[in-house]
Amino acid sequence: MPQKFFVYYVVVINIIALAMMGIDKSIAIKNGKKKSSRSKKSDASTRIPEATLIMLAVMLGSVGVCLGMLFFRHKTKHLKFTVGVPLCFVLNCVIVYFMYKLNMVI
Hints:
By secondary structure, the protein is mostly helical. It contains four helices and no strands.
């Protein structure tokens, strides 16, 4: 049972990460088009914080964030994403490897 939960967790967290990247990109585009009619409230408050997207990558969602970067061409000029997310992927692989070696998953 724990093995199935782990696989479900990885799939769900990556779907969430991909969706969050898409949502943030669409909000960014929408805010860019409304630049001329800015309200007093900051547009940045409606965006998904970068820390949230990075945290999703750390929580085994790095594949979803990477795919979001590729599909939506989002956050591709930010060093913390172009370097940090691939490093998170490597970290995720190491975590899964050791969990497998310790017979915790699969």
